[in-house]
């Protein structure tokens, strides 16, 4: 309960910080952005509604699914509209300190300062926006933002709670298509590892990665360690853990709208189930040979269940074996 209150308090505080930064910084962020990349030629600005939908269910991700302390949920969303020369985060590149703090803890203060500094230094950031946290693995949050020809790119991040340093997001997505704006965009989202914490499971304790790794996408087979919460070797691809819809809406005179909300909803009726195979330990050593001197006997070995199967996954194999033996040191 305390964790949930902290997340809600952080989300509200962050919301007010963004309002303040936008109020003070609109003039700076809207300056022209020099770039050698061919730019969008759309003559008007465009306003979009972003709808984030969580699909993090126990049916889709049964392995070590967090059900309490805290249960599966999503942090607030932090987004930026910008030019092509700015990168909030990049796969196969190192995370900044701001990205690190957000990916590990859902804390956005340093990330916000980095975004603000980039807008002032290289005039590449146009707007900053946010949506509040979703207190569940499934649910929606939405917000609105504006783009224009020189700043037609979108990037955002949402932290998985709980997780070591995992997040979902979009990096440098161009909403412009030549001389016009894209009307509707639907993107499936998959988890990323920020490369700053080496925990394998959703609830792993802090275990700093030294030296720091690059940001990588998590798949059903990478990282390949069986303890990893997303390790499903029978699957070719992970199911999407979230989805985002970008819908062009009628333009208003407001530069950016901070009206946002989140809606809990039930997706179990439509959810695909990910099979989870049984996992067992290695065999124990063979036990003592039980027999009379001169006669053959029987000895046993055992193993135990590490993880029970779910969603029609492979059943557990035999947990006990026996074999014939002859006693040693028989007198």
From TrEMBL:
InterPro entries for this protein: Spondin/Thrombospondin_T1, Spondin_N, Spondin_N_sf, TSP1_rpt, TSP1_rpt_sf, TSP1_spondin_dom
Origin superkingdom: Eukaryota
Q: What subunit structure does UniProt give?
A: Monomer. Interacts with integrin.
The UniProt gene name for this protein comes to spon2b
Assigned keywords, A-Z: Calcium, Cell adhesion, Disulfide bond, Extracellular matrix, Glycoprotein, Immunity, Innate immunity, Metal-binding, Secreted, Signal
Cell location: Secreted, Extracellular space, Extracellular matrix
Q: What is this protein called?
A: Spondin-2
Q: What is the lineage of its organism?
A: Eukaryota, Metazoa, Chordata, Craniata, Vertebrata
Query: What are the coiled-coil residue ranges?
Result: none
Q: Where in the sequence is the signal peptide annotated? A: 1-30
